[in-house]
Amino acid sequence: MFVKVEKDYEEMSQRGAEIVAEVVRQKPNAVLGLATGSTPEGLYKCLIDLARKQNLDFSQVTTFNLDEYEGLPAGHPQSYHAFMWEHLFEGLGLREEQTNLLSGIAGDLASECVEYEEKIRRAGGIDIQVLGIGGDGHIAFCEPGSSLAGRTSVVALHPQTISDNARFFETEREVPRRALSMGIGTISEARTCLILAKGEGKADPWSGMIEGPVTSQCPASALQLHPWTIAISDTDAASKLKNLEYYQHVARERADQPVLPPWIVRPELDPRRQAERAIDTNA
Ligand code: GLP
Known about the structure:
Elements: E1 2-5, H1 9-26, E2 31-34, H2 41-53, E3 62-65, E4 67-69, H3 80-92, E5 99-100, H4 109-122, E6 128-131, E7 153-156, H5 159-165, E8 178-181, H6 184-188, E9 192-197, H7 203-211, E10 229-233, H8 244-253, H9 271-282
Helix pairs in contact: 1-2, 2-3
The structure holds 2-amino-2-deoxy-6-O-phosphono-alpha-D-glucopyranose.
């Protein structure tokens, strides 16, 4: 995991946007995995700015979002569909057919989840997955206790998540109790993961993710097993990291190294593929 600390939210957002922009530069038909929540809002704003200033072409990009509340139609102001159009898709001028989100009102939610996995596969897999972290260490809506190998499914939200997200609704009772969410197994297959955190409230789950054991009690800690996760936070979220100085040293030493893995453009170099091939050869 590459741990980076930026001095504030603006710098973190700018850095994150540059990384996503670089994926699209290297691979114009990239598949972007996207997240909601207040954390990535700044990244999306910076990405729209970058796209305009640098004339970046998003016309061939495909997007997949991590999750959606059960029961909220796409037009509901608190749906993640609405969030994405407001904060990113509109600004990038994306066409609806380029974007994919789970439907929280599908007649058969289990099939909706299976088909979503299939769509990701058909699109060639996710090149970069943007993530935030929940106060309880969740990623997407994979709450503590979720299988670290889990696939997209219908999940029950943790009471802390319901109360954390109540700020977006009129009352806490309006927050849906369940959601559809990519699983940790689905997320882990992305070629790159880019996870962001801001504020003191994230300091505990952030240190759990980076320095704690790999455990379903802190779902984000599964990213320690991912071959290329970039973790960027502001100084407040990094305040409980024990090895902070070392991460800063590594960041300085790596300053001239590519920020993206070579397997974005050369999938055969992905170490996970090499492991699969080794198993095939031995069989
Ligand atoms: C929700 C989303 C997560 C997000 C989390 C944190 O639960 N499903 O993807 O990371 O909120 O949100 P925020 O960035 O607002 O703290």
